[in-house]
Write a structure and sequence with these properties.
Length: about 200
């Protein structure tokens, strides 16, 4: 096998943050010795998630089996999801921060699926994926991301499933969104062509 040096476009703080979460989790569950320390574990996860290397490539690069790499990635994702802020807390913080508006948008995260996996196929994007809703500040800084739904789910349906529109209305926060995220009568302003805010 040949090895090469590679760079990952992330800050050292990102690695420290994730390795800290993993270290605390291992201590809490009394985890026995593992092949990779928390820092290497975090780096393997970031290589897979950010760089897009397959589990087989990441496993080979870190000297572990594919099943071990898969378990490491699943564990890290689960811990990150648990530590993410809840929507209601984010909306309260946004209200306190006094943002003039928030931005709501959906995105499709591409996944590797076969044609038989119809629920994951997005007709709009012409590929398989997972639908994620993102709430951001006016400058585009993400505040909250939803869980994932199959790619065939429309953005408006996803926003309703996660209760985003109802909570935005209750928080009385002015929000910009495209037509995919809102329907007639929703409490979210839709920019239109020529709108300076859109």
């Amino acid at each position: 096998m040949l090895f090469y040096r590679a760079a990952l476009p992330l800050s050292p703080q990102t690695l420290s943050f994730l390795s800290g979460i993993l270290r605390r989790h291992r201590k809490m569950i009394g985890s026995p010795w593992r092949r990779l320390n928390p820092g290497q574990h975090a780096l393997l996860v970031l290589v897979h998630l950010r760089k897009g290397e397959t589990l087989a490539e990441a496993a080979a690069g870190f000297g572990v089996g594919i099943a071990t790499a898969w378990r490491y990635v699943r564990e890290a994702i689960s811990l990150l999801a648990r530590s993410s802020p809840r929507l209601d807390a984010v909306l309260r913080a946004a209200k306190r921060a006094g943002y003039p508006q928030l931005v709501l948008d959906g995105t499709l995260i591409a996944i590797d699926r076969v044609a038989a996996d119809r629920p994951y196929y997005s007709g709009k994007h012409k590929k398989h994926g997972m639908n994620i809703q993102i709430l951001a500040t006016p400058d585009g800084t993400p505040l909250w991301t939803s869980g994932s739904l199959p790619g065939s789910v429309h953005d408006l349906k996803a926003a309703r499933i996660w209760g985003i529109l109802r909570r935005l209305k209750a928080a009385d926060l002015f929000t910009l969104a495209d037509k995919g995220c809102v329907g007639a009568g929703e409490h979210v302003r839709m920019p239109y062509k020529g709108d300076p805010a859109g």
